[in-house]
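Throughout our pipeline, every protein is held as a single compact record rather than as scattered files. The record that follows is passed on verbatim for readers who wish to inspect the format:
___
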Amino acid sequence: MIHRNFFIAGMLMLAMGMLSACSGTDNTFFQNRQWNTLHIKLETRPHPVQAGHNEFLLHLTGPEGARLATGAVVRYRLSSEDHWIQAMPDGMSDVFRRALNIKNPKHAKLYVHLRFHGKETQLVFNLSDNQSGRK
């Protein structure tokens, strides 16, 4: 039973990966930040963000693109009044993903809380700046 559940989960992840690989690059957006030694890249799907569910992927890498050891915790919210929602690590790929429901794309912001090796920070990504094109 457990092996069957892992098989089903693996097949779903494979299908999602294949679908995302087939999508054009015009449907994503990237913003880059730096915090301590971490390189942070936010990817949005779709781009530009739309009313409804949008997927947010946060890529974390160390100096010179080194993969991180486990231990990062990433949480998202869409306003300073919302509760934090934990993003899910995407396997061992240093990507943390979550879909959130955006009500007003013209004024959308993504708040990110990042904890890594006992240090914490909060970042704000202005998503409404990116309504017309890719940066």
Observations:
- The domain at 26-130 is CATH 2.60.40.10 (Immunoglobulin-like).
- The mean pLDDT is 83.
